[in-house]
């Protein structure tokens, strides 16, 4: 059947190797021809603490984590054996099993490590009773003992994968290949042994009464499994970005470390510096001197960047900044996603400031829009920001390898060569007129320090076309108008020369619209398809252009529907506010579906939000979402 | 052919080339020490063979921040306290440039104090001139990190309870490899020190005493000065960290007791950050910025990194 899918959740303690195990398993599923999507849930701790990774795999396109899951591998938490911690965190050892039962679907499979849990623990959970009610198939297996027998306890993971493969009647060959590639010889052999032992043991000793089997699928072309952070880093590298400066902060650190791993070998420079003010200021300095440069952070760190961001605007120095959102305010929930920094990112920094903000919704868009961000920044001499979040940063999905087979773009945009500079206007002392008033698109081409005939002063103060500090009223108006004019020019270029950054699904004639932005897009797309399969008439748009706003596109979309629901992961309906501000109307036509509990939307929650909206029920939503009525309601 | 032909230009340079033509006259008050820095720089730069186009001056905010408005080089007038991170990145992106950062005591030791510590620690190859007049000038006379204890101003009407920062000692502890103090009232020494600082491979810090006739009423606050290298009363080895440290300590105490000691305090040959980064393979040999103009440059693609994702 076409909607046959596996959603495998592996749960354990932070530091137990859940991440690497699941990464390999996801690749094995991809290699077997399936589309995969992974979702990471982890605490802000290094060792111990409940963590899980979900891998959704199906023979059809998957764009979100899906609803719930149908296979739990509960490995226990090997770092949770400190009785002291119970006072604060409860029984950690049991959490990989106990915390995950609510979302397990009917008919699902549970494999847990009986070696880590006592019978009393299990009794406390009423597992038997609940299994019967939900038709769960429970397999207690002493993975720990099996791992110890083969040498090291950490190999519980591999044993768990072997058990999973056996229960799903899945071929081991892809898993073996990946292990062979990833593991040094010394540990490869015992791991292969335990994989096979676990597989055979399950085949021999257990009867399979469950229906779940490995889905089947086929790819037309070779695929790669990429995270959003990978896609952004690769988009930057392919844009010719060879300078990054940063300060570690979750979840931005992912891109920072990926870039740092590659840059030295690609003739680039990575700088880990004292704070985020310095980081963004370094990007400004490097770009001023002629490098394609980027920096970035997450909420709290991005707050520190507002000074250099304004400096880049005023001096018209191109830079690309990343804003990888996590739940705030302040340090909030460091490892949980939220779309709560929209207004902050759009309006950070003093004055009438102009910057470009993109919010990609998928892995492919993350790559594409990163390239666009560099192109726009260097062509228009303006800071561009890519907003994303912990969800997009950490999730993995497959894209065709051919998608990344394209030419690099090392152009410095509107930067002049020495030959061109010689032809430009200069004043009597030989200074180049860097900030001319009357130019096309608001862009006055720049020179770089060290070039002949290009000498100028860049200043964060208001300045004349020649670069002198000035408080002259007419000059102020002319310079401000020119800087702001860039946004209109960029909007025109985006509309005319590039394919729309907005993603549309559903039938054009549908009378109910769903509007979303950034990483919530995947769940919305899937929910929309589901609603239409159920006979509703729904279409959706995932918006990526936050500034300059795609006014024409959104106006057309909202005009074409009777009512629209804005779906976003924050408590104050920030994107709905932006739409109303930019379009100046539609307050009565827009409602909101909000989620801000630290977990991304599941498609079913959006379906439920739609039903409550359209059917006008007063019932509270069952999921942790909130409906915000239209203005005036 | 290089995209930066001004770099390495070794023609004879006239000091007037560093003076802007039809440009604003300095807004500094009559008698301001900042004129002394400007003059010393205009003299020093041609003498070390630099052309205006191969020099990038990066300044912060305050009276000192306007230095590069009146000095005809490539310039970047940044924001309060942030000259150093901007300057060091420019040097990393194109190490053919001669990068000189400048700021005031509030700008450099106050709001930019953290950057000062780290830029010195990393030993970036650049020169940093701090205009030290012991007050905030442009914001009209508030107490600064180098104001003496007990200093009264609009923000400390009963006197400053804080002890002043010790810039020379701080630079040494942080890791600067050339440390000197000079004064606007001593233009010849200032010029020589600036020349040495520019030629030094590493982070060269100059605490430049600039009298403020408006907010520190005694316009002659740094007179008379003593050049510790010229005076028979002082004998220490600038290459010996411990001797330099003791001398700095004495100098910093003496300033607030009315004795102005100036000169070179510490010179160390530790390799610069740029050099170390190159040795470790963390920075390209050729200036990064050149590559964007090189039509034959090879640009690696992420496509070639995909093996690990398949």
Helicity of chain A, in percent? 25-40%
Assembly classification: heterodimer
* Strand residue content of chain A: 15-25%
Task: Output the helix-strand order of chain B.
Answer: HEEHEHHEHEHEEHEH
Low-confidence stretches of chain A: 85-89
- Percent helix of chain B, as a range, is 25-40%
How many DSSP helices of chain B? 8
Share in β-strands of chain B: 15-25%
Q: What integer value in Å does the Rg of chain A equal? A: 27 Å
Widest beta sheet: strand line-up of chain B: 2-1-3-4-6-5-8-7
Chain pair sharing the greatest interface: A-B, 82 and 63 residues
Mean pLDDT level of chain B: 95
> How many strands in all of chain A?
22
Describe this structure as you would to a colleague:
The complex is a heterodimer of chains A (633) and B (310). Chain A has 633 residues and is α/β, with parallel strands linked by helices. Helices cover 38% and strands 19% of the residues of chain A. Chain A has 23 helices and 22 strands. The radius of gyration of chain A is 27 Å and the shape is globular. Chain A starts with a strand and ends in a 5-residue tail after the last strand. Chain B is built from eight helices and eight strands, in the order H-E-E-H-E-H-H-E-H-E-H-E-E-H-E-H. Chain B has an eight-stranded mixed β-sheet, with helices on both faces. In chain B, helix 3 crosses helix 4. Chain B is globular and about 70 Å long. Chain B starts with 33 loop residues before the first helix and ends in a 31-residue tail after the last helix. The model of chain B has no long low-confidence stretch (mean pLDDT 95). Chains A and B meet through strand 7, helix 10, strand 9, helix 12 and helix 14 of A and strand 2, helix 2 and helix 4 of B. Strand 15 of chain A pairs parallel with strand 2 of chain B, so a sheet runs across the interface.
């Amino acid at each position: 059947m076409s909607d046959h899918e596996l959603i495998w959740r592996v749960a354990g303690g932070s530091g137990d190797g859940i991440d690497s195990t699941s990464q390999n398993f996801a690749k094995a599923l991809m290699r077997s021809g399936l589309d995969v999507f992974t979702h990471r849930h982890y605490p802000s701790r290094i060792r111990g603490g409940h963590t899980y990774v979900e891998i959704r795999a199906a023979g059809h396109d998957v764009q979100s984590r899906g609803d719930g899951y149908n296979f739990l591998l509960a490995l226990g938490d090997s770092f949770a054996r400190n009785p002291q911690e119970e006072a604060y965190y409860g029984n950690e050892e049991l959490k990989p099993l106990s915390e995950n039962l609510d979302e397990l679907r009917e008919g699902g499979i549970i494999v847990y490590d009986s070696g880590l849990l006592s019978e009393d623990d299990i009794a406390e959970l009423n597992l038997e009773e609940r299994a019967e009610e939900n038709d769960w198939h429970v397999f207690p297996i002493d993975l720990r003992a099996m791992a110890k027998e083969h040498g090291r306890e950490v190999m519980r993971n591999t044993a768990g994968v072997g058990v999973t493969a056996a229960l799903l009647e899945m071929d081991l060959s892809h898993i073996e290949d990946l292990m062979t590639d990833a593991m040094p010889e010394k540990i490869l052999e015992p791991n292969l042994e335990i994989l096979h032992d676990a597989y055979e043991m399950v085949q021999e000793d257990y009867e399979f009464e469950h229906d779940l089997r490995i889905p089947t699928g086929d790819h037309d072309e070779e695929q790669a499994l990429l995270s959003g952070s990978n896609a952004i880093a690769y988009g930057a590298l392919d844009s010719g970005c060879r300078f990054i400066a940063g300060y570690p902060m979750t979840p931005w650190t992912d891109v920072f470390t990926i870039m740092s791993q590659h840059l030295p070998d690609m003739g680039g420079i990575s700088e880990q510096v004292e704070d985020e003010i310095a980081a963004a200021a370094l990007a400004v300095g490097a770009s001023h001197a002629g490098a394609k440069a980027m920096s970035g952070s997450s909420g709290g760190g991005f707050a520190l960047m507002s000074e250099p961001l304004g400096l880049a605007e005023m001096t018209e120095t191109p830079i690309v900044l990343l804003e990888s959102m996590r739940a705030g305010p302040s340090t909030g929930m460091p490892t949980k996603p939220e779309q709560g920094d929209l207004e902050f990112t759009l309006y950070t920094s003093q004055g009438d400031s102009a910057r470009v903000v993109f919010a990609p919704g998928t892995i492919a868009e993350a790559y594409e829009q990163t390239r666009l961000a560099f192109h726009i920044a260097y062509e228009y001499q303006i800071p561009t920001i890519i907003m994303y979040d912990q969800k997009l940063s950490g999730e993995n999905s497959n894209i065709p390898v051919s998608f990344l087979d394209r030419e690099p773009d090392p152009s410095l945009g509107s930067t002049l060569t020495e030959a061109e500079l010689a032809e430009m206007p200069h004043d009597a002392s030989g200074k180049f007129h860097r900030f001319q008033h009357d130019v096309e698109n608001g862009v006055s081409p720049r020179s770089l320090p060290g070039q002949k005939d290009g000498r100028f002063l860049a200043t964060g103060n208001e300045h004349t076309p020649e670069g002198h500090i000035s408080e002259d009223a007419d000059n102020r108006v002319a310079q401000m108008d020119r800087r702001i004019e860039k946004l209109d020019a960029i909007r025109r270029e985006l509309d005319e020369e590039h394919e729309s950054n907005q993603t549309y699904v559903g039938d054009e004639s549908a009378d109910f619209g769903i509007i979303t932005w950034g990483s919530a897009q995947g769940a919305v797309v899937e929910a929309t398809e589901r609603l239409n399969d159920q006979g509703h008439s729904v279409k959706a748009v995932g918006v990526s252009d936050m500034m300059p706003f795609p006014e024409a596109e959104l106006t057309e979309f909202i005009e074409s529907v009777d009512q629209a629901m804005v779906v976003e992961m924050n408590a104050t309906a920030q994107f709905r506010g932006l739409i109303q501000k930019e379009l100046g109307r539609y307050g009565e036509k827009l409602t909101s579906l909000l989620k801000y509990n630290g977990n991304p939307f599941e498609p079913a929650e959006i379906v439920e939000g739609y039903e409550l909206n359209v059917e006008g029920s007063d019932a509270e939503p069952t999921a942790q979402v909130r409906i915000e009525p239209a203005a005036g309601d | 052919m290089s995209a930066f032909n001004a770099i390495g230009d070794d023609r004879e340079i006239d000091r007037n080339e560093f003076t802007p033509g039809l440009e604003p006259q300095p807004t500094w008050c009559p008698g301001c020490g900042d004129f002394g820095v400007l003059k010393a720089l205009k003299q020093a730069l041609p003498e070390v063979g630099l052309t205006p186009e191969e020099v990038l001056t990066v300044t912060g905010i305050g009276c000192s921040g306007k230095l590069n408005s009146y000095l005809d080089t490539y310039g970047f007038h940044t924001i309060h306290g942030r000259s150093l991170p901007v300057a060091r990145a420019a040097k990393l992106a194109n190490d053919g440039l001669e990068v000189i950062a400048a700021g005031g005591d509030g700008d450099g030791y106050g709001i930019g104090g953290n950057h000062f510590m780290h830029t010195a620690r990393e030993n970036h190859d650049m020169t940093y001139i701090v205009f030290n007049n012991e007050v905030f000038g442009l914001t009209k006379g508030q107490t600064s990190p180098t104001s003496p204890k007990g200093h009264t101003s609009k923000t400390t009407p009963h006197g400053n309870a804080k002890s002043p920062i010790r810039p020379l000692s701080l630079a040494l502890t942080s890791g600067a490899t050339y440390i000197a103090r000079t004064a606007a009232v001593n233009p010849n020494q200032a010029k020589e020190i600036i020349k040495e600082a520019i030629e030094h491979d590493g982070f060269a810090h100059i605490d430049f005493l600039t009298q403020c006739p408006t907010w520190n009423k005694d316009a002659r606050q740094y007179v008379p000065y003593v050049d510790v290298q010229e005076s028979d009363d002082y004998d220490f080895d600038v290459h010996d960290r411990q001797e330099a440290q003791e001398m700095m300590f004495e100098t910093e105490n003496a300033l607030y007791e009315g004795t102005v000691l100036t000169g070179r305090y510490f010179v160390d040959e530790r390799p610069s950050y740029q050099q170390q980064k190159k040795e470790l393979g963390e920075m390209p040999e050729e200036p990064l910025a050149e590559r964007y103009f090189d039509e034959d440059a090879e640009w690696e693609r992420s496509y070639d990194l995909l093996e690990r994702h398949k």
